[in-house]
Amino acid sequence: TTHTMSTMYLARLNIMSESVVYCSHLLSRKLLLSSISPPTDSSFFFFLMIRRPPRSTLSSSSAASDVYKRQAYGAEKYWDERFLNDGDEFDWYLKWAPLIKDQLEQLGLAPESQILVIGCGNSSLSRDMYDDGYENVTNVDVSSVVVQQMQRKHSKRCMEWQHADVRDMYLFDEDKFDFIIDKACLDCVCAAENSTANMHKALEECLRVLKPNGQLASLSYDWERAKYFEQEGWEQHPTEIALEKPQAMGVPSDLDPNYCLYVGKKR
Question: How far is residue 11's CA from residue 239's CA, in Å, rounded to a whole number?
């Protein structure tokens, strides 16, 4: 058992090492070139931030940093500071087209659908959806900073931007939305402290604001999230759809080659 665990941890360390090399490579190119496309496989960065080797292999300062990061993902202050310090557009995992668009349209997304994007951040997702004809988009984020930034940036588009916590979306009435779209918001809830309780709160709120037969489409790096949909109100089991990760500048990865798109349907 000890040997198996050691092998597993070494594998994780190797993956993290590859991620560091990849990030360093991107940074070096950005310093050398005046223009460079942003990295397309942001899973490297998310994995690097939230997956760590076991505490026994860390120094006390590293372990303390790990605890801090887990607390930070659930804290509004962390995200406010992050968006204040880095206002550049950033998309977790995948952009709107083609994969997310194709899947959501197959699920019944239509231009008249009422859509809620949770944890919108400064992603291009809502803008691209709006420009693609899906104009009934409401966006929420726990960071008031990024909400204000996006309100200014997209003032000519008739979208709604609201400061709200996915665990308590008191701003919205029941049975309001046809679709809720999530890219990494619920992953961040799972990465913070008290993840199980907070995931239940978040999914209860999603159920509350969804119309009957409304759908939550949640894109995740993790294939073990289905258990959270066991609470009353969802259909028996979420659909799990594999969406291929983009190749990041040809850098090979030992990570799972697919993201998981969970689709939960309200009864």
Answer: 30
The pTM (predicted TM-score) of the whole model is 0.76
pLDDT in tens, 122-167: 999 999 999 999 999 999 999 999 999 999 999 999 999 999 999 9
Q: Please give the angle made by the CA atoms of 204, 236 and 263, to the nearest 5 degrees.
A: 65
For 65-78, write each residue's pLDDT tens digit. Answer: 454 455 577 778 88
DSSP string, 110-133: -TT--EEEES-TT-SHHHHHHHTT
DSSP state of 247: P
Rounded Cα gap, residues 207 and 242, in angstroms: 23
Six-digit token pair at 32?
A: 């050398």
Query: d(Cα 131, Cα 125) in Å, to the nearest integer?
Result: 10
Cβ neighbours of 178 (radius 10 Å): 18
User: Which of helix, strand or coil describes residue 216?
Assistant: strand
3-class secondary structure, 154? coil
Counts for the chain of helices (H) and strands (E), in that order: 9, 7
Cα separation, 181 vs 201, whole angstroms: 17
Those residues whose C-beta lies under 8 Å from the C-beta of residue 3, and which sit 6 or more positions away, are: none
Determine the Cα–Cα distance for residues 60 and 57; give it in Å rounded to an integer: 10
Q: Give the integer Cα–Cα distance in Å for 125 and 61.
A: 37
